[in-house]
Protein 1
Amino acid sequence: MAFRPDAGRNLPHEKIRLLRALTSKRGQLVETRKRLLAQIKAHGKLGSADMFEDMDAELKDLLDRQITELEVQIEEIIAADESLARTASILRSVPGIGPVASTMLIAEMPELGQISGEQAAALTGLAPIAHDSGAMRGRRAIGGGRRLLRHVLFQAALVASHHNQVLKRFADRLRTAGKPHKVVITAVARKLVTIVNALCKNRQKWTTQSA
């Protein structure tokens, strides 16, 4: 509310609401598929895989098809809107940001490009928050924000820390300084969201100078 006083009074436009619904459903199906694969693995360890092999295979095929259908719908909505298509192109130009991450950023963070980098980090829950009381007193930690979006950005940061040469050097410096893995990935994710926010604000694609 501090970043956008009009938030809560203006609903996102129809295409954003539709994208949000589709990405949410896709996420639910992906989680269901993960649980199914875990169950299949457990059946294998227990020696009961043969009992459910056909049933599990049929369910996995169904989930695969439904996820693919949702992804096609998402791509069609983005492609049909010039502004959304341009934003998606900008986001996907950044090594580490793929179709899933770009769609989630578009659907769950319509403020992208209209706010500061610090505000973008705060909205995704990647800005360090100082604790002034309790057991965490004197320490800083991330929290709040849009949890689903933060999870996607963590996944993007993992990829970027190895395949985006600018962010790989940034991550390597932190690792050399002895920072724990979680701290490194959180810092990369925070830098990543500030970069994509700036790119969207300037309507420019990624270059190695973007960071």
Protein 2
Amino acid sequence: MPLLGFGTWQITGSDAVTATAAALESGYRHLDTATVYGNEAEVGRALAESGVARDDVFVTTKCPPDRAGRERETLEQSLEALRTDHVDLWLIHWTTDSADERRAVWEAFVAAREAGLVRDIGVSNYSPAQIDELVDATGVKPAVNQIKWSPLLYDAGLVRELADREIVLEGYSALRGGTLTDATISGIADRLGRTPAQVIVRWHLQHGFVAIPKSTRPERIAANADVAGFELSDDDMAALDGLGSSRRQ
């Protein structure tokens, strides 16, 4: 699973086609979409027309839990829209209040993996306790937990809990919530001659978190992926980590 992916939330219609195409041209090899985004067909079209081999791109989509009982049908619709016979990662998009429903949906996900329709399965917006509940019920742990994440939300305890369970932390909305205008992030960016978005993406990668920045502007899509030419120092990483701690106090 590439640590850098292209997020497509709120990108629809022709914008989704052109943005996804720009991402693939810029070197992204991980695409993140979802049933509720309403853009799987556009993402699939961009991938099919890109000239990039399907096996070279890691594709994630998500199933809303209100499709309980129709998981297989929902997945088959996603595969048709994406023009592929499998996805690399299928996530439960959010949790519900019903433990029985959470278990039943997860069991359907396990069955889809066993049928070869998905390479791996995971969850989104789940707590460690809810993840443990799934594992206790089925013996199968999620590969990934996709959560809202940025330096401003950094929680070392949560990082440890997911690492202890050998579950990948994937962050979404990293470039929202004031991160691009935060003084600490902007200061590091100015000193390094980089954009705040590049600093945030680089922070994810150095921690081993998966980042899925999104944009509809080709120049920003390319810039967000241009993070290999610099490194954040230990002091920079500590300063960024501290933003989340200070907010929780």
Protein 3
Amino acid sequence: MRQKTKWYAAAVGLATTGALVLSSGGATGHGYTDLPISRQKLCQNGTVTNCGSIQWEPQSVEGPKGFPASGPADGQLCSAGNGQFNQLNSPTTPNGGAWPTTKVTGGQSYTFRWQFTARHSTSDFKYYVTKNGWNQNRALTRADLELTPFLTVPYSGQPPATLSHSGKLPTGKSGHHVILAVWTVADTANAFYACSDVTF
């Protein structure tokens, strides 16, 4: 009877391990930017309140990859097209105020940082910025962005839990802008999106 119990325990253990392996692959790789701080991180850390479910899962802003040719629809870029995170698309916070901004300086090197709650095989990281004169009174669209990324960081393999990389910020900017960061996953059809409000 003891041998049978051991085999049963081993089988349960293997089944559990298999379930964990399955749950840690596929589309469960998640991440967000905290330098410059993203809208989802501002909701998660309580700087901005009444954000809804994004406050518990800032890492889950996942949508189709291929931006700007494809990807989330205009007006849904900051939420990656996820209706449950629609608060991130609004030009104002859920409380009606302005999104807090990070001060940056055009032309200088800046260290961008991602936090990953589950790591995923990666193609690259790309960073886009709004055009001068962009419409700040509506949800972000492709027409508001310079569609050539100002920084592209190729990456092969799975990133560590925290990943930093540096690049030069665009010049000729002043005032409030949005940086759209896109983490492209290599082995799924998706990417992760993060909008950060900055002041040049």
Protein 4
Amino acid sequence: MKLYKLLSFSFLIATLTSCTFTENITINENGTGKFSVDMDGSALMEMAGDQIGSQMGADAKKDIDSTFTFKQLFEEKKDSIAKMSPEAQKELKKLENFVVTTKMSAEKKQFLMTMATDFKNVNELQDILQTASALQKLEGSANVGPMGSGFGNNNSKLSYTYDGKKFTRKAVIDKEKLAEVKKDSAADMSKMMFASSNYVIKYHFPKKIKKVSNPNALFSDDRKSITIQYTFTDYMENPDKLNFDVEFEK
């Protein structure tokens, strides 16, 4: 299966039923780290694996275990990218180093997808999810967004900061864009599709955590990691609900 066909099909699955999206950040002692977004659509495979298999035809008869970079995908779509504006091309270039891993098995009722990249400083991740929504601009992919239709494009600007003493995740809502979306009838359909989906944040730090501003944060035994679960509806409609600060022990 071609990279773009596989990715497009994966995004389609993400829009159909309940999925769990997990945003992972691991920060090392020197400030470098890894960022990833995982999507678990196994619930859909459990409910409709046979129907999905028939849509995929011959590809459904074999398990898929695929790993590729967006750089490879962009090479496949280079003609379409060349027609895009310089600004859009620049946005896509930010995604080149992302590695996409997909595991799908109709027999095992499994569908897992991960987009991951390394970073030298957490500040590099500013608006990374919104940048990923630039994939929608690729020719022939009007309804395709990373990990599902419109994923990442929740009408906010997301930033991360970390200085060794404090970590902050902050989304600033574009109220004008959000108002426009709420007027769009497609928004109701999108809300319905993601009503039973969850958005989970899992962050791992090199220091013990003193406190987190979100009272629902769960700590690991060593207090160096936190997990916070939200509804996907909150992620899309109230992205500032996912804002929080983490303070570390000295």
